[in-house]
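4.2 Preliminary Data

To establish feasibility before requesting continued support, the project team ran the inverse folding procedure on a target of 106 residues. The structure was first converted into the token representation described in Section 3, and no sequence information of any kind was made available to the design step. The complete token record follows.
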């Protein structure tokens, strides 16, 4: 699995997430249909969020996988909205496949 930062500003970050069917954590998740585990999708979003905040603790308030992430490349983005962050993973047509709402702990 590879997460490459494409753009970063104080309130927004974008990265390219790519993985292959032969990656162990993908292959073993569902042997007959390799997909990325939701925990790794969330980890990609949290990694970008941590790059933008100085708060050491974050809370995930919402996390939803709209469709399985099959091997390939995806766009991961995190945007600050007020006091929290919105993270998403999209396919190459801009379709939201995963969404998360992340809050900084006081």
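Position-by-position output of the design step:
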């Amino acid at each position: 699995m590879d997460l490459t930062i494409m753009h970063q500003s104080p309130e927004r970050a974008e990265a390219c997430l790519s993985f292959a069917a032969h990656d162990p954590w993908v292959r073993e998740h569902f042997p007959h249909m390799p997909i990325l585990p939701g925990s790794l999708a969330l980890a990609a979003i949290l990694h970008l969020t941590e790059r933008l905040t100085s708060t050491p603790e974050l809370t995930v308030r919402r996390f939803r996988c709209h469709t399985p992430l099959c091997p390939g490349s995806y766009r991961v983005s995190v945007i600050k909205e007020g006091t929290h962050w919105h993270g998403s993973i999209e396919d190459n047509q801009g379709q939201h496949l995963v969404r998360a709402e992340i809050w900084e702990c006081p």
